[in-house]
Amino acid sequence: MMTAAPSPAATQVYRVYIKATPERVWDAITRPEWTARYGYTGLADYDLRPGGAWRMRATEPFKAACAADGRPVPDVIIEGEVLEVDPPRRLVTTYRMLMDPEIAAERVTVVTHEIKELPGGVCSLTLTHELEGAPKLAELVGGQWEDHGAGGGHAWILSDLKTLLETGKTFAE
């Protein structure tokens, strides 16, 4: 009898603790000079007001690596709308991944970043991704495709962000 892999949760929650100020964490999430350095190295462009657009553009090295693997990606790999913004504490956006046609056809999802300052110069960063109606995206961002070359999803991105803010270097450096 075959068993299927467990289905990813419709809401995924990730939390990391980072030795950094809330402002540095906020900048690392919202500024392209930071987002180009960690995770999948996208260039974030935010219109940081409710109703503003946001997008993640692929860097040239990322596009080249994907093309070399036979998986070309568009210039804009994720797009959405800013729903709530309260710097440096809370950012809520819609999220539509464009790298894969099947995932792009799924329902638009919602991502919430919450940053809380804690004693001792530490912040918690909680990412909540509401993935109802987007099962393939839920698998991807949940890291279930990691063994197939798709990376470790949100957990990997947040771990790399933490490493960058605390050490000045990423996993790749």
From TrEMBL:
InterPro entries: ASHA1/2-like_C, START-like_dom_sf. Residues 19-148 form the Activator of Hsp90 ATPase homologue 1/2-like C-terminal domain. It comes from the Bacteria. Coiled coil: none annotated. Belongs to the AHA1 family. This is SRPBCC domain-containing protein.
